[in-house]
Write a structure and sequence with these properties.
Elements: E1 2-11, E2 14-24, E3 29-33, H1 40-47, E4 55-60, E5 63-64, H2 70-80, E6 81-84, H3 96-101, H4 115-124, H5 140-154, E7 158-162, H6 170-185, E8 189-193, H7 197-202, E9 205-208, E10 213-216
Parallel strand pairs: 3-8, 3-9, 6-7, 7-8
Antiparallel strand pairs: 1-2, 1-4, 4-5, 9-10
Helix pairs in contact: 4-5
Keywords: ATP-binding, Nucleotide-binding
GO molecular function, one term: transmembrane transporter activity
Protein name: ABC transporter ATP-binding protein
Length: 217
């Protein structure tokens, strides 16, 4: 569970996120919605501790992370969460397999980790048999699916996604929405910034960033 209490974020002198109080519950998909430029990505980044907040606090499991040390925040990123962001967080010069498992010999190219599970998550995300390929060969939509494969492999407890279906065709969109649903059904927290009507429809809670309104289905 991720909770924002009275959170405001300024970029320069501009208040981009204003006094947000929001709980993103475990087992639910929460959509951050609103017109372009209203602050969805900024709020998503603040909820993921990628951006400092200027007012208020972010809580994870009742622990106030606004006061956390750098090492506590790093542990949160490494052990608890996964990000599917617009700039992907994918290492282009590494293989697909490495990008999922994040394990290999220091100077080798061999993919390490749990290979059966790696192949399973690649199949789930429509990237079967591509573990040896360089990530730079993937399209934008494939890279987003690769980031989701990493999140599933990692068993992340909180998933942050920024416009995750923006560059997908209808078939892959459906597949990815179903995977997000599975994630939430396992009891994990899913937070998604999106304009996609089909994805919004699949969410349990919608938060309108501009008006600070919450709609629960
Ligand atoms: N690094 C930055 N420097 C200056 N302004 C920024 C920066 N990041 C965001 N902004 C501004 O903050 C506002 C909110 O941006 P944000 O990306 O959070 O909006 P968004 O709702 O996610 O938009 P979109 O739907 O178009 O992705 C915008 O006006 C944007 O120009």
């Amino acid at each position: 569970m991720i909770r924002a209490e009275g959170v405001s974020v300024f970029i320069g002198k501009k208040e981009v996120v204003s006094d947000v109080t929001l709980t993103c519950k475990a087992g639910e998909m929460t959509a951050l919605i609103g017109p372009s430029g209203c602050g969805k990505t900024t709020l998503l980044h603040a909820l993921g501790l990628l951006l400092p907040v200027n007012k208020g606090a972010i809580f994870y499991k009742e622990h106030n992370y606004t006061k956390a040390s750098t090492s506590q925040i790093k542990r949160f990123w490494q052990q608890e969460v996964a990000f599917i962001l617009q700039d992907y967080g994918i290492m282009d010069e590494e293989s697909v397999g490495f990008n999922v498992t994040m394990q290999k010999d220091l100077f080798g190219k061999k993919v390490k980790g749990d290979l059966a599970r790696l192949r399973d998550v690649l199949e789930q995300t429509g990237l079967s048999n591509r573990e040896q390929e360089l990530a730079s060969y993937l399209s934008g939509g494939e890279k987003q699916r690769l980031a989701l494969a990493r999140a599933i492999y990692k068993n992340a407890k909180v998933l942050y996604a920024d416009e995750p279906t923006a560059s997908l065709d209808a078939k892959n969109r459906e597949k990815i929405i179903a995977l997000f649903r599975d994630f939430a059904n396992k009891g994990y927290t899913v937070i998604i910034s999106t304009h996609d009507a089909a994805l919004i429809e699949a969410c349990d809670v919608c938060y309108e960033v501009q008006s600070n309104r919450i709609a629960r289905k």
